[in-house]
Amino acid sequence: MIVNIKKNTMQHSSKYISYAFLLMASFSIFTSSCKKESYALPVASDKLQNEAIKRTLGPNIVGQQIEFAYAMAILPSKGKLVSCTAEASIAGASGTYMENRSFYTAQTGVDVGDTVGTPSVTTGTKTTVTYTVDTSAATLRYFYVIPEAARGKTVTIKFTATSSDGESISTTMGPYTIAQMDMTRNMKVSNDNMMYISIGDSTVYNAEDAAAHAASIDLVYLYRNQPDRAFNHALVAPAADTQYLPGVILPAGVNRTARLLKTFNLQDHNLAPDEQYGGIFIDDVDFQKIDLSASSNYAINLKQDAGVWVETADGKYRAYIFVNSVSSSGTAVISMKRFALK
Amino acid sequence: MKKNITIALAILLTAATWISCKKDLPVDEDGLLITTRRECYVSNFELLGTDFVSVRVGSPVIDTTEQTINVTVQFGADLKNLYPQFTLAQDCKLDPKITGLTDFSDTLNPRKWTVISGDRNIRKSYSVIISVQP
């Protein structure tokens, strides 16, 4: 009996110890998880520092800009900024420059620039701004205009800042692949006048000039307001059935065909930068992958925001033509991205 | 107390066994549920161009007795590149499946699709007859 009582007492004791242990463990976890971590202000580096970001999105197209923002800073007690240089691996085209203003965003959300240096000087691959004010921190923007020489290649940009204490720091951005395709924006086409489109020449001709460039005319623009049909604005290959070219007398020699595939609402941001929903970018790979082998040679009833994928008869080019705007007087504004296949 | 726990465990075990032994509902080779429904017809039909905009003129005429769908498409519609869209009776499926652009250019030999009922026992072949707006 005594033995049993002792045994029970021991069992109860060990249970209480376990409960107590669990309670203490829970309490300690609770308190440690709720403990406020002490915060210490980070100590600023006493070295010259820099940081760069690329501000532009989408494919890098020859003739277009790539914009960077390059920030540099040094402790005021150590010195001030002296110069900033951007060096491209392939010299930028005409128009490449660096802002000599450092921007900050005002409360209204507008970027405001303060002049901090001389206008940039570009020599070969290097673009430099020399500081003219006593400043220890600035963010300068660099606009690299993609040159023809960079088509299909990669480009890197090396940013370098120097300070009055003799320090120098660099950061390299890229490599960025430059697209093979090119782009022509805002070509005006009109019914019975500027209506002959050459993808190879990236331009629009009237009948007289089309006759002179007959071998390169790929499409005919026309507008027909037919009450019983939805014809409206159309892009038609010269070799298409004449029912799709009503009333059109083609200039001598204009007889090529093409492959066309109609789309709608494919609002490429490069071709339609003002479009509300134009967040799409058509890139080289889209031209490489699209299959137009079963496509027709006409696209009628085109509206604003419509698009047409085109492959030329000689298989030399694929293009995407976007309809920026149309008018019922028989005019339209079109933009084109073009990719050379051969 | 111990007795209550034992009873609760026994109930849970029974429930788990019952759930695991319940016969699964049958599915077909496409993983679709085979039901008891015997309805087998097309209730609506649409044709979209490559721009995903309808090329239809007027409503389609669906004859569930003759099993034909007559559609008039706009002048200039690219008949080689159209997306057909069928609306079927509940639980039905279509054979062959529509996987992308479809060629309707051979208007003398209309394309055919078979509607299969929910119980997979009834099959009805529909012809899609296209005519182009003059």
Give short descriptive properties of this protein:
heterodimer, A: 342 residues, mainly beta, Immunoglobulin-like, five-stranded antiparallel sheet, 3 helices, B: 134 residues, alpha+beta, five-stranded mixed sheet, two-stranded antiparallel ribbon, 1 helix
How are the SSEs placed, and which strands pair?
The complex is a heterodimer of chains A (342) and B (134).
Chain A (H helix, E strand, L loop, with lengths): L1 H33 L14 E6 L10 E9 L7 E8 L8 E2 L2 E5 L5 E5 L5 E3 L2 E5 L6 E9 L8 E10 L4 E10 L4 E9 L5 E3 L4 E3 L1 H6 L6 E6 L7 E5 L21 E7 L19 H6 L8 E5 L3 E7 L4 E11 L3 E10 L2
Antiparallel strand pairs in A: 1-2, 2-9, 3-8, 3-10, 4-9, 5-6, 7-8, 10-11, 12-21, 13-14, 13-15, 15-16, 16-18, 17-19, 19-20, 20-21
Chain B lengths: L1 H20 L20 E7 L7 E8 L4 E6 L9 E6 L4 E3 L15 E6 L6 E10 L2
Parallel strand pairs in B: 3-7
Antiparallel strand pairs in B: 1-4, 2-3, 5-6, 6-7
Task: Tell me about this structure.
The complex is a heterodimer of chains A (342) and B (134). Chain A has helices spanning 2-34, 207-212, 284-289, and strands at 49-54, 65-73, 81-88, 97-98, 101-105, 111-115, 121-123, 126-130, 137-145, 154-163, 168-177, 182-190, 196-198, 203-205, 219-224, 232-236, 258-264, 298-302, 306-312, 317-327, 331-340. Chain A is mainly beta. The termini of chain A are far apart. The relative contact order of chain A is 0.12. By secondary structure, chain B is of the alpha+beta class. Chain B has a domain at 42-132: Immunoglobulin-like, CATH 2.60.40.2340. Chain B is built from 1 helix and 7 strands; from the N terminus they run αβββββββ. Chain B has one helix at 2-21; strands at 42-48, 56-63, 68-73, 83-88, 93-95, 111-116, 123-132. In chain B, a hairpin with a 6-residue loop joins β6 (111-116) and β7 (123-132). The longest helix of chain B has 20 residues, at 2-21. Chain B starts with a helix and ends with a strand. The mean pLDDT of chain B is 90. The A-B interface holds A 228-231, 234, 244, 261-265, 294-296, 298, 300-301, 306 and B 49-53, 74-76, 78, 80-81, 101, 103, 133.
